[in-house]
Amino acid sequence: MDMKVTKKLGLKERYNLMTRDLAWTPTYQSVKDAYPQVEYEGIKIHDWDKFEDPFRMTMDSYWKYQAEKERKLYAIIDAFTQNNGHLGVTDARYINTLKLFLTGITPNEYMAHRGFARMGREFPGAGPRVACLMQSLDEIRHAQTQIHSLSNYNKHYNGFQNWHHQHDRVWFLSVPKSFFDDALTSGPFEFMVAIGFAFEYVLTNLLFVPFISGAAYNGDMGAMAFGFSAQSDESRHMTLGLEIIKFILEQDPDNLALVQAWLDKWFWRGYRVLTLVAMMMDYMLPKRVMSWKEAWEIYAEQNGTALFNDLARYGIKVPKGWEQACKDKDHLSHQAWNVFYNYGAAAPFHTWAPSEKDMEWLSAKYPETFDKYYRPLWTHYNEQQAEGKRFYNGTLPMLCQVCQVPMFFTEPDDPTKIAYRESEYEGVKYHCCSDGCKHIFDSEPEKYVQGWLPVHQIYQGNCFPEDVDPTRPDFNPLAEVVRWYNIEWGRDNLDYADSEDKKNFETWRAQATGN
């Protein structure tokens, strides 16, 4: 009996069969009606087939690779949990970095999932549609594995249980939330630049690499495992974002001005979100891998310069604000942690002033700025706390209308002077924290006047529980806002030194080690 020999398909042929050959041109409806957003922003695409996914991954291979990663990841997580791995971290200060990550980053993984699912519907081209579908699945997987990994800490420590509730309410969480709200309300091409560039390239390198290295350095194998499991996906995500940008630029010269404007905008928006990462690296990790300044020089200045050199052949220039961001590296983390120390009563994690040992490290890493500008501040706070006068700021700060970070950033060439910028729109004045945010506001004022700014909402009385009576003689607005946040006063917040987390951790570890 003769047997028919079937030639094995090559990678490119197989990829085309499983992606582009499954696409079709609609006939019952026009292409414009089927994909109404694709011309919304003015981007001109002449040939969607020119987009090349460098990974050429098909759905069957995707599930195979991801299933293998899941098997290894959950084996590590289960071992970490069963062996009380939480007692192996350096000390309970580290656990507050996980609370910051869970409330500030994990919900945005889910938002990215929603955004890329939408992009899989908006693009007429089969290549980017399939790539966006896989990234959408990656993003929801990241959210799920992060929640699962950190759920072990929820069994033992305060402040993990209300992360989703707090993401929509807590003052500083409006910073990452507004970033994704901004991206999701953009057109499809701007979304791809915003997330593919600002989130996957600018944010990912400066968040996942230092944070996950910090997790490993501080004995947290659970967080380390989900971080490295996600990082292999992130390499694809960064590549997709950059390939989309190059594809857009190659399709028509008229696209250059729009892409440059988006890179300017989203570099600055992503950089402002990194404020939270900067203070985490320098102040919240008990054992530090590197300083924020060192991380910026490696992952932003070196990598970013290489990226912009690569894009220069298309006419792309270094984004606006790049020079200021490079100047800010000596100041950003110190100024941010000072704000959180001040407003620790309204944060869903504990804060503290750095010890003398911490300040020696900071002095070594920031020899030109820390001792001159910031050591006197922390020395004063420590002296006040030693006298029983731990300072909490009872007022509310002015927020930037665009990035929604409190207005604490200083002028690029004068770290003793707060930067204030002002714009007027339809007779109303709006405040911004920098030239970068003011430029973004002035470009799209109709969008940013709609910002949900927590401080404004609190002063308008929109952030209190329903049973609150503001006319009561003992009415305490801060306590009621904290209750609306679902933060348990004294357990989830305030100073680390007197926290239940610290006392419980030390007691449990002493019992486990017999010391």
Automatic annotation (TrEMBL):
Residues 410-452 form the YHS domain. GO terms for molecular function: monooxygenase activity. The keyword Oxidoreductase applies. Keywords: Monooxygenase, Oxidoreductase. It comes from the Bacteria. InterPro entries: Ferritin-like_SF (IPR009078), Phenol_Hydrox (IPR003430), RNR-like (IPR012348), YHS_dom (IPR007029). SUPFAM superfamilies: Ferritin-like. This is Aromatic/alkene/methane monooxygenase hydroxylase/oxygenase subunit alpha. It comes from Comamonas faecalis.
